[in-house]
Fold:
Amino acid sequence: MSQDVVRSLRDIVRTIPDYPKPGIMFRDITTLLGDAGAFRRAVDELVQPFAGGKADKVAGIEARGFILGGAVAHQLSAGFVPIRKKGKLPHTTVQVSYLLEYGEDVIEMHADALVRGERVILVDDLIATGGTAGAAIKLLRQIGAEIVAACFVIDLPELGGADKLRADGVEVRSLISFEGH
Ligand code: AMP
Structure:
């Protein structure tokens, strides 16, 4: 990706210090989504290595992963699978729980959203510790998906999530990165 594109995507992501709690630099992608050119560039760059039928489905993580994942799926002519917080999906689900800083959380997907052997790209807006994406990959593998890659607009490399996924055999693609939390 050209350095101009990286710079322009970095500049358009809005940073809100101390949100939702002190010490966190919240990387707000709504400014990127609201800019037609930046949104298109981000989606084009995310899909670029996967054009030509490399994926059957795109799985997006609630909620910002739905916006990006939906656009990625459309562009790849792939189906879309929502991965949601517990209790939101109406049909039979499979679940995975994962640890948060305090306590734990559960994500789920419909048990019939994928058939064994389908090739899936996971999409979310940002990877930090990798807890959320790692749980989503566990969930997808549990029902027999083949993970083609995990794609994020933003990586926070100091938190180690992308490296953790790579160590677990997942190809990770991110467009821009920020230092710190
Ligand atoms: P993690 O599970 O630690 O990799 O966190 C990733 C999830 O939390 C993603 O769904 C992000 O949207 C959200 N997230 C974590 N840290 C930030 C941050 N600094 N700014 C915006 N979103 C964040």
Observations:
- The radius of gyration is 16 Å.
- The first helix runs from residue 3 to 12.
- The longest strand covers residues 146-155.
